[in-house]
Design goal:
Layout: H1 3-6, H2 12-24, H3 32-44, E1 50-54, H4 60-72, E2 77-80, H5 102-111, E3 118-121, H6 125-129, E4 136-141, H7 147-157, E5 161-169, H8 177-188, E6 193-199, E7 202-207, H9 216-226, H10 230-233, H11 241-252, H12 261-269
Parallel strand pairs: 1-2, 1-4, 2-3, 4-5
Antiparallel strand pairs: 5-7, 6-7
Length: about 270
């Protein structure tokens, strides 16, 4: 892969700001810089195929991904969510977040002018995966945050990753077991993956099955930092008191600033 293949489409900053404005009009739990980073990924990933979003909620990330991919004609976006609320996050989820979300999600797509630009599956990811046979350039996992749920999504869809594709998990640094554990155990410790990192709570890595071993040193360096978080969130236990302070200390050691599109492209096209 080369930097030319990664590509920086014209007027990318304007495209991302437009997607951000659409996203801000949509309820959700993802920060502005995380949304910006999703825009960079949607525009710059050096692979061909679809974007697959697992976990759409009311469409906050969907409108950014859909807006950017449609603007540049970079393949479609498939959004998968049963739209049954956030009950999978556990019994402490507040009542307003347990209601079905499909009507609001569909309304937000219409408001963003994306109702015909997104392939929507109101279903569980495991059901959609049964007949899946299309290449994926970006796998965005933001559904069931339990270890079992996150691992299942990863296992079902990664066989369809195109060479150079990216896998990303939301909330990997927000106290959930699934995203951080799957990222560490299945990606950072695998020679199938190359450049990897964090932007705020998003953990991401590029699928490099032919030369991922070249990036082993960098992956293991990151592994040493973020694997220290796993004992604090096993079984989705929320750290409290001193353990919470210690968790935050270890989390502060993980690099997670937003990078410019040029920097990101350079990181995923180096040999």
């Amino acid at each position: 892969m080369s930097l030319l293949q990664c590509g920086l489409p014209g007027n990318l900053e304007a495209a991302i700001e437009h997607g951000l404005s659409l996203s801000r009009a949509t309820a959700g739990f993802i920060a502005d810089n995380e949304i910006r980073f999703l825009g960079i990924l949607a525009a710059c990933i050096p692979a061909k195929g679809l974007i697959v979003e697992i976990g759409s909620y009311k469409g906050k990330s969907t409108v950014m991904l859909g807006s950017v991919s449609a603007r540049y004609g970079l393949g479609g976006l498939v959004a998968i969510d049963p739209h049954e609320g956030l009950s999978y996050l556990g019994p402490e989820v507040a009542e307003p977040f347990l209601s079905p979300t499909f009507e609001e999600f569909a309304s937000n797509l219409r408001s963003a002018g994306l109702e015909n630009k997104v392939e929507v599956h109101r279903d569980y990811s495991r059901n959609v995966a049964k007949n899946w046979n299309r290449p994926i350039r970006f796998l965005w996992i933001d559904g069931d945050h339990s270890y079992a749920g996150c691992k299942e999504d990863f296992d079902l869809f990664t066989p369809h990753l195109a060479d150079g594709a990216v896998v990303a998990f939301h909330d990997a640094l927000n106290g959930f077991e699934g995203p951080i554990r799957v990222f560490v155990e299945e990606i950072l410790r695998s020679d199938r993956f190359g450049p990897s990192g964090f932007v705020h709570s998003i953990a991401w890595s590029q699928f490099r099955p032919s030369d991922g071993v070249k990036f082993k040193k960098d992956r293991l360096k990151l592994d040493r930092k973020c694997s220290k978080l796993i004992p604090f969130v096993l079984n989705n236990e929320q750290p409290r008191g001193f353990r919470k302070r210690l968790y935050k200390f270890f989390r502060s050691r993980v690099p997670r600033k937003l990078v410019a599109p040029e920097q990101w492209c350079a990181s995923v096209t180096r040999n």
